[in-house]
Queue: 2 jobs
Job 1
Amino acid sequence: MANQQALILKEGSSRSQGREALHANITAALAVAESIRSSLGPKGMDKMLVDGFGDVTISNDGATILDEMDVQHPAAKTMVEVAKTQDDEVGDGTTTAVVVAGELLNKAQALFDKDVHPTVIVDGYQLASVKALEFLQKLAIKVNPSDKAMLKKIAKVSIASKLLAEHKDFIAEMAVKAVLQVTEKSGTKYVSDIDDIKVEKKPGAALTDTVLIQGVVLDKEVVHPGMPRRVEKAKIALLNCPLEVEKTEFDAKLNIENPDQMKAFLDEEEKILRNMVDKIAAAGANIAVCEKGIDDVAQHFMAQKGILAVRRVKQSDMEKLAKATGSRIITQVDDLKPKDLGYADLVEERKVSDDKMTFIEGCKDPKAVSILVRGGTERVVDEAERALHDALCVVRDVVIEPRVVVGGGATEAEVARLLRTHAQKLSGKEQLAVQAYAEALEIIPLTLAENAGMDPIGTLMELRSKHQSRQVRTGIDPYKGKIADLAKLDVYEPLSVKVQAIRSASEAANMILRIDDVIAASKSKEGPGGPKGPGDSAKEEGEGES
Ligand SMILES: Nc1ncnc2c1ncn2[C@@H]1O[C@H](COP(=O)(O)OP(=O)(O)OP(=O)(O)O)[C@@H](O)[C@H]1O
Ligand SMILES: [Mg+2]
């Protein structure tokens, strides 16, 4: 009886436990952090990623790199989630969050090898992260959310490491203008949503040809050749109903017995369409933007009346148009009233590179704007768009929560010092864990120094001694390759970016450290094209019904 074995897992399942499981998880997570470490900071390198179809992405953005890497290991995936959360919540600091998470695990591994139990490490880390967040709040500097110069500095830091760093002045200025334009005051707070900023991209010009449009740019052409291509003082109707004769949902058969009946039939259709166009014209609109289709005949009538029309516009664009032009989206042409129309100084179809685009610009105090990103090639435009996204996000972050911290690793170094001082009040092994946490934060200045070709350890020692002598804003100046007062160099980052980075890095590290058992089901052998499992057939049936 004593030697009897019981199989509780399915055949082929793998299981690793205890030390072995923890080591494997840490190794996988560390590999992820290590892979993007060299991209941190203004002197960081970019990564080239090639997907299964041979499509190439060149990026410096942590979240993008990890997303494209398509990692498989479950612990490694946790790190990818860290980057993703960071990107969703605050838009910048994705590399920082992952690198810190990685280093927390690295330091934990060292403690673990010295026989400190994972739960002690987890508790210590937990305590340290609460304290670190507290210290961050203390180090934060209040700013004025409408101080354009400050916002511009922050935007510039966020794109310092990106491909378009050369034009950071220009892009930062644009990001600040765009965010402030869509920001609204609600009580004492500001609300700002970067979804109100439409970013459209087209390769085929210089990066400096990127423009901010006080309105919306649509990747659509005017529907009919007879329509005007340029309308000044535009009165815009937004319609989300088709300008077509509605087709019935069921099949019906009509017997037509003579040509007159046929004609009456067509005439009636024409009358309906003419009626719709007349209503639009009667309301005073000279622009019609339609979310649905526009019948050829209706197009013809609109052209006759000098109305410029665009069709099949995305719902999100319709919403932006409503915010930009002040018009109301109408669901039935019959309901259209003059007061529902929006206004723009100019609506014009222009050829951008090979495509025709419609610009609705010169709106009065628009609450949605657009940025048309240009650049030499597709890849440049893609990366420029990602960098612009970071810039827009950090400006929004500061507008919503107007506090900043000093960048370049200065804040991390200071929080580390404060944590070390705090650790002295703790006892035994907990103290070790808090110290390890402090050291892990120093990976940021260390990496910035390393990526700038400086001597990492020497620099870190120098940095520590500066912080000991209360020069709390000392960090890494990667351009000059030495340590400096980064507040003097105008390197500021939003507090919310650092808070989120520390929070999600700690959570991810703790989550991985708590695992002591990995049970993985065997991979199903049937790949695509192989025999289908019961799940597949159920899905197919479901699809058939809809
Ligand atoms: N001019 C500068 N001098 C010193 N440090 C800088 C400067 N500009 C940026 N940094 C630092 O570079 C780091 C940010 O680097 P980077 O933008 O590559 O990574 P991230 O923001 O963590 O992630 P990602 O931008 O990929 O989402 C921050 O620590 C920031 O303080
Ligand atoms: Mg960044």
Job 2
Amino acid sequence: MDYLSINKEAWDKRTKVHVDSKFYDVEAFKDGKSSLNRIELEQVGNVEGKNLLHLQCHFGQDTLSWARQGAKVTGVDLSTEAIEQANKLKLALGLDATFVANDIYQFGNENTEKFDIVFTSYGVICWLPELNLWAKTIASSLAIGGEFHLVEFHTFNDLLCGYSYFPRSEPDVEDEGTYTENCDGTKSKMVTWAHSLSEVINALISAGLSIEHFKEYPYSPYNCFEDLEYISGQGYQMLHKGQQVPLFYSIKARKIA
Ligand SMILES: C[S@@+](CC[C@H](N)C(=O)[O-])C[C@H]1O[C@@H](n2cnc3c(N)ncnc32)[C@H](O)[C@@H]1O
């Protein structure tokens, strides 16, 4: 199955809808609002003068938010529509950034540049069939001493939604609409893979990265799942049998050799 073509087509279609959505609020972003959340801002810290690679950057709001904070940024995404929109946004705002349309494994094979920071977030891992290759791409893109930062949806919620927690040999292939409020007519075939937390962590360790931080969070900055409840000052939470569900996790790892 040509999963890259299937997912590229779906993400091209989604991107066209996302740029007009309240969820992504491009107008507020153009007016100066950062699209980054407290979790990643606190974890990554000062990026001034740093060379930052953003994997699966979508249409670039987070990438350009890091640029606004002084980083020299490169964003990579499979969707040519997303990269086109990212370049438009960059030009409209007069920001400096390089956007590359590519599969991240292919990017990893071709890239020779070394980055101080590799960043990726919110809905990235499920699109990848193989995490050892993903982790190798991250490790080979980092300079010695460089940091990797991941903020990702917790797979516990996938389990509650009826998906496998543990990796399976076959992907899930489904017709799915997008997660923004203007999602009518966005149903497209998509191919995703289940990856457990231990698979993520072991892939990073096998690629030679040293894990310095791992944290799980019960509050989401995004209202993007069913049955979420807003808790003032915290974000959205989900209860299962009266207990909080872990909705996100974050990992910081370093290339030490
Ligand atoms: C949920 S979005 C990332 C969310 C991002 N944090 C945001 O909201 O701006 C997932 C992105 O992964 C990209 N993607 C999926 N498979 C990919 C692959 N193999 N290589 C590169 N990008 C990929 C999609 O095109 C999409 O833009």
